[in-house]
Amino acid sequence: MEGARIIHVEQRRADLRFPFPAGFSEHVKGCRIEALGRRAKYLLLHLENGRVLVSHLGMSGSFRIEESGSDKLRGDFHYARSKAEKHDHVVFHLARHEGGSARVIYNDPRRFGFMLLLDSADLEAHPLFAGLGVEPTGNALDGALLARLLAGKRAPLKAALMDQRLVAGLGNIYVCEALWRAGLSPRRIAATIATREGKSTGRSERLAGAIRTVIAEAIAAGGSSLKDYVQADGSLGYFQHSFSVYDREGKPCRKEGCSGTIQRFVQGGRSTFYCPICQR
Ligand SMILES: [Zn+2]
Q1: How far, in Å, are 45, 59, 64 from residue 13 at the CA level?
Q2: Centre of ligand 1 from the C-alpha of residue 264, in Å
């Protein structure tokens, strides 16, 4: 999509989770897509007219790409995406930068996704974005920043890491995995990874590195899969097989030389998995 021009947009419904903005398809028609981006769970299409098309996939939304003159779906998905036409709600007709055309189709059976148009100058201040913390994939997240963010926080370390106002985009699975990798207990008081003055420690450095590695590996593996998404034949998504601690209750810890057994407990309404021997 980057560099492509939006020839026109078929908007087939008035709403998804929310109504589409007034004049949605007219506002994007004819625009070149200057860049694609992401902030937390929001996908961002930066348009040449200074607007940003903000899209959220909700629970069941997906985009698929179809090139002209070909039935073949672009991209290799582990799970078949819905192609049921009745759930194709938005179709972007694109003229590609390198020539040729393509259709990018937004399909969403449950319609919890949404699309908004914002002026790029207003993006950071918009209520959806204003309170978001630092990205776990950016260079900004390091041991010093984590220490500053968590200094003085009396919440359990796991709860603090899942607070989207501190770090945006970390969920239950990746926090469990990062804490295991860093050898830190999810129950530890968050402030204890920083010095009293909020300075970086070996713990905050280890944790920052673990978060970035876990996220990078998950992206490379194509995301994770949960029990909800087990396929009809019972097979699991591939990233699940590489979880080190998540969903491994009662199994031996995978850390070399550790004799621990993974335990599960409920924390803030979510299952936490950890090794009581090597996570302190
Ligand atoms: Zn262990």
Answers
A1: 20, 18, 18
A2: 13
Q: Has domain 5-130 been given CATH number 3.20.190.10?
A: yes
Q: How far apart are CA 255 and CA 73, in angstroms?
A: 40
The rounded radius of gyration (Å) of the Cα atoms in the chain is 21
Give the pair of three-digit tokens for residue 123: 């993006």
DSSP 166: T
Ligand 1 centre from 275 Cα, in Å?
A: 5
Domain 143-274 coded CATH 1.10.8.50: yes
Q: What is the pLDDT along the chain (280 residues), one digit of tens a residue?
A: 999 999 999 999 999 999 999 999 999 999 999 999 989 889 999 999 999 999 998 878 888 888 766 555 444 444 455 678 899 999 999 998 888 899 999 999 889 999 999 999 999 999 999 999 999 988 899 999 999 999 999 999 999 999 999 999 888 889 999 999 999 999 999 999 999 999 999 999 999 999 999 988 877 766 554 444 444 444 444 444 578 999 899 999 999 999 999 999 999 899 999 999 999 9
> Is pTM beyond 0.90 here?
no
Cα 244 to middle of ligand 1, angstroms: 10
Structural domain boundaries in the chain: 5-130, 143-274
Q: How far is the CA of 180 from the centre of ligand 1 (A)?
A: 8
Ligand 1 center–CA 262 separation, angstroms: 7
Asked if residues 253 and 262 have their Cβ atoms less than 8 Å apart, the reply is yes
Neighbours of ion ligand 1 (CB under 5 A): 253, 255, 258, 260, 275, 277-278
